[in-house]
Amino acid sequence: MEPLITANYHTHSKYCKHADGESEEYAQAAVDSGMKELGFSDHTPYPFPEGYYSSFRMYPKEMKDYIADVLRCREAFADKLEIHLGYEVEYYPRHFEALIKGLTAAECDYIILGQHFTNNEYDGEYSGEGTEDEGKLKLYVDQVSEALETGLFSCLCHPELIHFTGPDEIYKEHMTRLVKAAIKTETPLEINLRGLKFRSHYPDALFMQIAGSLGADFIIGVDAHEPGDLHPGREYKEALELAEKYGLHLIDRLKLKKPAV
């Protein structure tokens, strides 16, 4: 019998513009796969400068619909599934305070950190492109560490999204700083099942060696982009095998932090 994942806090839906499916479809898939807890975490709208629109997140005007969908889904599945309303958030220093004020005023149970771009997205670079530039690795780790220091994030998802192809010694130096920042702030790291599904450069073996040796907490995250992703038999089994191989301390539930100014 395949091992079962009982909770997932990394779930997208149609609002992020690169995922498919209604909230109810994700909830039903979670119930069918035996989950007890499901967190929706679509990419948060961001108060960017006038005229800039991100291609992979909901627009601010869509936020009310997203909230209504998740709350309606929570009510419909109340006797079957514990549902949380969250967001996947990038830490963009220039706009982060305004973002948190907006989330504090709205309905929000938790946020997870997923740093896809450094700097402020519209003036930064995508972190997942392969690079031998130590400066780009350092900037990613600096920015993620600064984000963790806010104490607002319930999890750091795909922490090794930064695709550094230079020497292992340099990677170890900077990613050790990242892991220590996560431990200091009691922020679990994610084993990302979407990366396993598509054989991406993450999860990364060297990163898991570093984090395992330092005793960081890990949570398995589906990173669902379609309802069927919430039946992650093969990927979940592989994640458990990786955790055992690298001595990772797995937790099966997150302590959700409600963001506040």
Description:
The protein has 261 residues and is an alpha/beta fold. It has one domain (7-251): Alpha-Beta Barrel (TIM Barrel), CATH 3.20.20.140. Helix content is 37%, strand content 13%. It has eight helices and seven strands. It has helices at 23-32, 63-76, 96-105, 134-149, 168-184, 193-197, 205-214, 233-246, and strands spanning 7-8, 37-43, 82-89, 110-113, 189-192, 217-221, 249-251. The strands form two sheets. It has a four-stranded parallel β-sheet with strand order 1-2-3-4. Strands 5-6-7 form a three-stranded parallel β-sheet. α4 (134-149) runs parallel beside α5 (168-184) and α5 packs across α7 (205-214). The longest helix has 17 residues, at 168-184. The termini are far apart. The model has no long low-confidence stretch (mean pLDDT 95).
Q: Helices and strands, in N-to-C order? A: EHEHEHEHHEHHEHE
The beta-strand count equals: 7
- Percentage of residues in helical conformation: 25-40%
Percent strand:
5-15%
Radius of gyration over C-alpha positions, nearest whole angstrom: 17 Å
What are the salient characteristics of this protein?
alpha/beta; 261 residues; four-stranded parallel sheet; TIM Barrel
Show the helix and strand layout.
Blueprint: E1 7-8, H1 23-32, E2 37-43, H2 63-76, E3 82-89, H3 96-105, E4 110-113, H4 134-149, H5 168-184, E5 189-192, H6 193-197, H7 205-214, E6 217-221, H8 233-246, E7 249-251
Parallel strand pairs: 1-2, 2-3, 3-4, 5-6, 6-7
